[in-house]
Design a protein that fits this description.
298 residues, alpha/beta, Beta-Lactamase, 6-stranded antiparallel beta sheet, 5-stranded parallel beta sheet, 11 strands
């Protein structure tokens, strides 16, 4: 095992990485280099949800193919939902011993009988989890699976490393977006695009739902970073009216106007209604991600 202080100092290498995915992968490699003989998993929490998504996983060795065969899919293709116990313990930012072994790690996604077989294949000893946090909000987590008779030594080294990484993860965390549109097909499409990118995404059909949802989360730990509102919604008031109500409560709200109507008429609407950006339909994935990035980064 390399020197603990050198391991901690390695976090400076993460500061100039361009994306959160790159940060997660680099963190995984650094942890794997430090805990050479163990399984290391790095995961990301989708903002505004309890969903955990794997971003890095190494150290399984030759048993990985057997595990995938038993599960019928790769870990990277599975979304895990955080347990109630984890919601209480993980925000503390300290190593958390998973007494329930692999079954607890898999959060019920893997049958207990299968979990026991996997533990034997791995010669599993103990599993620890520790979260990346911001103001006691979980942003993601690291799992270290110790095999044979190995155990977590010098937990303070891991805590300090994770504390430093947490700041970098917080700086690069994906936004949480509220999307208003009266067409279900468009709502579903945007949700799938942003969900795949690791964004938090809530979709609503009516203007009053957009206002209620935004205000509900306004003072919470996962407030919305951006709102994408169709200006014209059938059976309800649209994005312009929703924006007016939201901006009264949150003058700094980052709102994006969206419509399939002519761009010229839309320019006047969005400039006079407090929107920071506009997005004309139909739009590409790059246009969607680009406009959200611009309002998020100010």
């Amino acid at each position: 095992m390399e020197n603990g202080q050198a391991f901690i100092a390695g976090t400076t290498e993460l500061e100039n990485l361009k994306s959160l995915d790159e940060v997660y992968k680099a963190v995984g490699r650094q942890l794997k280099n430090y805990y050479k003989n163990e399984v290391v998993v790095v995961s990301h929490r989708i903002p505004g949800s309890d969903i955990i998504r794997l971003k890095f996983s190494e150290g399984w060795g030759s048993v990985l193919d057997k595990i995938i065969s038993m599960l019928g899919r790769r870990f990277e293709d599975m979304d895990f939902k955080g347990s109630e116990e984890a919601k209480t313990v993980m925000p503390l930012g300290k190593p958390y011993f998973l007494s329930g072994g692999f079954y607890q790690l898999a959060l019920g996604e893997v049958p207990q009988s299968v979990a026991k077989v996997i533990e034997k294949l791995l010669s599993l000893n103990k599993i620890y989890a520790i979260a990346f946090t911001e103001n006691k909000k979980v942003l993601g987590a690291v799992i270290i699976i110790f095999k044979h008779n190995e155990d977590l030594r010098e937990p303070e080294i891991l805590e300090e490393y994770i504390r430093r990484v947490s700041k970098i993860v917080a700086q690069n965390k994906p936004p949480r977006v509220l999307f208003l549109d009266d067409e279900k097909a468009i709502r579903d499409m945007v949700k799938e695009i942003l969900w795949t990118e690791g964004y938090g995404i809530t979709t609503v059909e009516k203007g009053e739902e957009a206002v209620a949802e935004y205000l509900k989360e306004l003072n919470g730990p996962d407030k919305y970073d951006a709102g994408l509102f169709d200006l014209y919604v059938s059976g309800s008031f649209g994005g312009k009216e929703a924006a007016a109500q939201i901006l009264k409560a949150d003058p700094k709200a980052s709102l994006i106007a969206c419509t399939g109507k002519s761009v010229d008429s839309m320019l006047t609407e969005y400039k006079t209604s407090g929107f920071k950006e506009m997005l004309a339909k139909p739009f590409t994935i790059d246009e969607l991600l680009g406009v959200i990035s611009r309002v998020k980064n100010g």
